[in-house]
Design brief:
The protein is of the alpha+beta class and 195 residues long. It contains seven helices and ten strands. A hairpin with a 6-residue loop joins strand 5 (119-125) and strand 6. It is globular and about 50 Å long.
Length: 195
């Protein structure tokens, strides 16, 4: 399993050489240009295959293309976003939220409940886990990133509601989510603001 690391210049080359459309390339380029001094990461096919196997899911091809271009995973710094693109229950409380690129399910119970909502986590609130960002793994045509609280999904299931009743679109796509990042928190606690 491997994440590929590179400089900002290498990341820009990954973006330009990717299969992504012009808008998504532009969004990822914006992120790289805002954070030129960090090490950028992208997922190898080996990493994505391992992730699918470990979580017993299939990542839609459209997301694999984005993840092979630029990815927030493994030891990527925690990050804050300026806003969501859509309203969610946490829209008005974004300031304290630091997301970490925790990929996959924390345990079998979480996997069982989130799969009922068709969600695969790609980030969660670092300190509390109260807010998760995830992709829809049941619809190849759905590029959105969703926001939810795992506990709300469990409550919906227990209350015989649709499991995705508490799942809200947050970003139009994974590259759009990345373009909304305004600050990084390095492992030593150093804060890096978008330039």
């Amino acid at each position: 399993m491997s994440i590929i690391r590179g400089s900002s210049q290498e990341a820009l080359e990954w973006i330009q050489g990717s299969e992504l459309g012009g808008a998504q390339k532009s969004q990822l380029t914006t992120f790289v240009q805002r954070f030129p001094s960090i090490t950028h990461t992208r997922g190898s096919d080996e990493f994505l295959d391992f992730t699918e196997s470990a979580n017993r899911v299939r990542i839609p091809d459209s997301f694999r293309s984005a993840f092979r271009t630029l990815i927030l995973a493994e030891d990527f710094p925690d990050f804050r976003v300026s806003s969501y693109s859509y309203w969610t229950p946490r829209t008005d409380n974004l300031l304290p939220i630091w997301y970490t690129g925790d990929w996959g399910y924390a345990n079998d119970q979480e996997r069982s409940s989130l799969l009922q909502a068709h969600m695969f986590p790609v980030a969660q609130w670092a300190e509390t886990g109260i807010s998760s960002l995830a992709i829809n793994i049941s619809d190849e045509t759905d590029p959105k990133v969703y926001e939810f609280t795992s506990e709300d999904i469990l409550d919906d299931i227990r209350g015989n509601l649709k499991p995705d009743s508490s799942v809200f679109p947050a970003f139009a796509s994974y590259p759009e989510m990345i373009s909304h990042i305004i600050e990084l928190r390095l492992p030593d606690g150093t804060l890096v603001q978008a330039g």
